[in-house]
Amino acid sequence: MNSGNNTSTLKNLIFDLGDVIIPIDLTAPVRNFAMLANLPETEVQAIWKQYDILNKYETGLVDDNAFRTHVRQVLKNDSWADEVIDTAWNTVLLDLPVERIERIKELKQNCRLFLLSNTSPIHIRQVNHVLSEMNQPTLEELFEQVFYSYEVRLAKPSPEIYQHVLAKAGLVAEETAFFDDNAANIRAALELGIRAIHVQAPKTILDYLKDI
Q1: H or E element: which one contains 167?
Q2: Rounded to two decimals, what is the model's pTM?
Q3: Domains assigned to the chain
Q4: Residue 62 carries which DSSP code?
């Protein structure tokens, strides 16, 4: 492992989802909603921040229907069907490289595997749909346990979400590696004694998994 830690005591691997397992484009949903609403991207971005739409949805404060209703209200278009909103929302997800899934499946032989993601139900359903089309297991089948921010009502980098994962899965921090693309999320995990590895382009998760 690139961190130089001894991998012989490594028993557990926790993966982020976006830009670790599946590539994402965080600017795409705003861009697509701006086109749908015939508004400048900067205006849609400002509306997003003003109403804190993403955080409320990803921490389970609103459900799918409330999220869609909120999007229609703030972008002033009551005619959008659920599928229109879901499709625009899912443009954040790019093509999923099958070799990443295959490598994770290999790792199941030697390590306990977990998923920890700040995400929303619409995105998870779409990722699982893509996986099924690739004849691959769903996220819930691929990992021993999945921890979605909207289900646990917590989000990275809050220390509480890491403590929740460690406690719920019965993990020892020092025996656990956590892979994430976000520096703040990495710092928070490190402070709890987890072996946190910052996944940074142009490297992919496969580069960081070579020595495991």
Answers
A1: helix 159-169
A2: 0.94
A3: 7-24+95-208 (3.40.50.1000), 28-92 (1.10.150)
A4: S
